[in-house]
Amino acid sequence: MGSLGFWRLAQGDPAWVAAVDPDGTEYTAGELLARSNRLVHGLRELGLERGDGICGLVPNGVDGLVLYLTALQAGWYYTPVNWHLTGPEIGYIVADSEAKAFFVHERYAAEGVRGAEESGIEERRRFAFGDVEGFRPHTDLTDGRPDTPPDDRSNGATMHYTSGTTGRPKGVRRRLAGIDPDDSAELMTFLLSLFGMKPGRPAGGEPQAHLVTSPNYHTAVTQFGGSALHMGHTLVYMDRWEAEDCLRVIERYSITNTHMVPTHFKRLLSLPEETRTRYDVSSMRWAIHAAAPCPVPIKQRMLDWWGDCIWEYYAATEGGGTIASPQEWREHPGTVGKAWPISELLIVDDDGNEVPAGEPGTIYMKMAGTEFEYKGDREKTEKNRLKGFFTVGDIGYLTGDGFLFLSDRKADMIISGGANIYPAEIENEIVLHPKVADVAVFGIPDEEWGEQIKAVVEPAAGVAPGPELAAEILGALEGRLARMKWPRSIDFIEVMPREPNGKLLKRKLRDLYWKDHERAI
């Protein structure tokens, strides 16, 4: 194949700055290559074989990147673990993934140790970045090992665990092709080429830098960052995302591309005008967003500020998706785009029959050449499939010319008085209120209607919660939203429970209202 792929680029230009840690420490491609080569040698001595897996409970930065590069050139699976989980939840993933080595950063030592004990992984397979009780220093695997490329290199893969709406999370596992890691990495860059992205300096292009804004345990964050690195882009990591800090980093490193979520946009736009204009963001060429529907006015304001660099897509860990260029979105405001060239969409009713254009139904997708299974759960793998397509339970509709619009998650849909009500539509209106920082809408029990609409609002900084604010928020919906969709009541919360990738943990809120009822939605 061609000249892309981290290992080829690193050998050709070892001085290229391939990654920048959140503290500003720069790492050359040569350093990362040597570290990952040594780690392959050390883990093979530990007994790891092709098809085995490793887990990492590590913050954003180069330590996790080295684990990723190690697995992807040695034919192993790498599972980055969500650092917000508790010990038992971590232990479940380490055990379920059958990890042959578990790496823990000292920042997460307490839950990491509990997770190791819960999983039953042998002590000789526990390794630490920093000081973690009962774990060996990770340097035990690398000290004295050669930094030369290992023999018998073969492509590996990430195996992310999906959070799921019910039950335990499941690992999305793809069959390994057994091909050269660089050829596999070059195939990965197809994802970024869909957005028109170009190779960076070591691959013969202009310097490019990719900003990692969200935790690397999320599939999209790993995929976009990894693909950018394989294209020769410098990865610049953020630790804890803050709006002004994000603008500072974009200016400091001339960031050309990033992956974001609508929550990032909302918080950037909430900055005072003088703060926003203080930073030069003109280097940005591709600000790609996904994970949740973006309210049309918020995206419009980002386009007005950053220009036509705001791209959108819709996809899932399992594979397949859509893409909307800035131009396509301007022509079809609110769309998440058309199917990728290698992807197909199917919208069906509750009986599995395809619905006409414009009619909402469950979204099914498929992507050529990406068969997957939920590890250890054949039943779930088959349950979410239909004629070779799969679904994650989202609802939406297609226009006659193939543009997809999202309505909501099936699990979040409210059925009140027999009518289907989509919370996302209500949330998208309420969040536009200047005194609202964040909002969640869901159904709560109602003896007469089955469910009534509840809104939980996080007020903007300095805004006092209470009945007056609730009345003001509802009043602003007049003429914009049918009254049948208005929340019957609004409660207030100090901080909305969201994952750092922007995903709302709605079940945490909803369970409080359903806990004394027989049925939980």
From TrEMBL:
It is an enzyme of class 6 (ligase). GO terms for molecular function: long-chain fatty acid-CoA ligase activity; medium-chain fatty acid-CoA ligase activity. Residues 7-368 form the AMP-dependent synthetase/ligase domain. Its EC number is 6.2.1.3. The keyword Oxidoreductase does not apply. Residues 155-166 have a biased composition (Polar residues). Residues 425-503 form the AMP-binding enzyme C-terminal domain. Residues 134-174 are annotated as: Disordered. Keywords: Ligase. Residues 134-154 have a biased composition (Basic and acidic residues). Belongs to the ATP-dependent AMP-binding enzyme family. This is Long-chain acyl-CoA synthetase. The lineage of its organism: Bacteria, Bacillati, Actinomycetota, Actinomycetes, Streptosporangiales.
